[in-house]
Specification:
Chain lengths: 152, 143
């Protein structure tokens, strides 16, 4: 069994590691959201806007053979981070006339971030990271047992 | 290569089945892996892999006529890869529930499937090792 061909051990590790890095990016975005939950001033002006990551499935490997196969049948998929997008939810208006950024009516535009929501997302990202590492462990242990074939 | 294995006196059909089942188990592992990795990807449909069916057709059709290929780029008999082994036949798993983002992966199920598959993989290798051990015992004249 070739290592790099479809179903090979290295392809499996590549798929899992794509999941790990995707979850890590998601974690960073969530951290940024949590850290800026009360930020009212940004470089673009106005309050901080919540960020979100977009995932998409991509066929693992980009060789010609892989693309050919992709055209014909189902294929194993790694996960790809398509980009980081801004949440379109409007800013939360909080009544706080003493705030330096308050408008004429005494309302401050606060970031459109719900801390609870971010915490829940953080836990899901964490869980997914764990299941990905466990999958890597499984792949590794299968590979090492296979290496021991014929040894006694 | 498999035909040669079957005609051999030392390595018989049972060994060919073990080898084939190891390959298929590894492929099945990859399918589970792909599903787990994409558990958060919107619109991803979980893939399935019927191990028993695959193994059955891999060992059952040894007498069947198939085109001999010596290079991975040759035209293949449908369902057979270049080295005569059945190519992985994956299908989109039928599911009754789809999440709001169109993702159909059940992570718990995938993880248990993966664990079970891993155990049987190791068990298969154990069987293979015992057989090789017996061979070695014979070769060494019982020493």
């Amino acid at each position: 069994m070739a290592l790099r061909q479809t179903g090979g051990i290295l392809e499996g590790l590549e798929i899992s590691s794509s999941g790990l890095s995707a979850e890590r990016i998601r974690m960073n975005v969530i951290s940024s959201n949590l850290a800026n939950a009360n930020t009212t001033r940004t470089e673009e002006g106005g309050p901080y806007k919540r960020k979100d990551v977009v995932f998409s499935a991509r066929s693992s490997g980009v060789s010609f053979d892989n693309l050919m196969r992709l055209a014909f049948d189902n294929n194993l998929k790694a996960v790809n981070v398509d980009g980081i997008v801004e949440d379109k939810k409007p800013a939360k208006m909080v009544f706080n006339p003493n705030h330096p950024d308050a408008n004429d009516q005494g309302y401050v535009a606060m970031p459109n971030i719900s801390v609870m929501e971010e915490m829940v997302n953080m836990i899901t990202a964490n869980r997914n990271f764990e299941s990905d590492t466990q999958a890597i462990q499984a792949t590794k242990s299968m590979a090492t047992t296979a290496i021991s074939i014929g040894r006694s | 290569m498999r035909a040669a294995v079957l005609e051999n006196q030392i390595f018989n059909k049972a060994d060919a089945v073990l080898e084939e089942s190891l390959n298929l188990r590894m492929q099945r592992h990859m399918v589970n892996l792909s599903n787990v990795t994409n558990s958060m990807t919107p619109g991803y449909r979980a893939l399935g892999f019927d191990f028993e069916k695959q193994l059955q057709s891999a060992i059952g059709n040894s007498e069947q006529m198939m085109m001999k290929t010596t290079d991975p780029k040759h035209i293949r008999t449908p369902g057979i890869s270049a080295d005569g082994v059945l190519k992985p036949d994956m299908f989109v798993k039928p599911t009754e529930s789809i999440g709001s983002d169109g993702n159909t992966v059940d992570v718990d199920k995938e993880m248990t499937e993966m664990a079970a598959n891993q155990i049987i993989y190791r068990a298969t290798i154990e069987v293979l090792n015992r057989q090789l051990g017996m061979l070695r015992y014979g070769i060494n004249g019982g020493r």
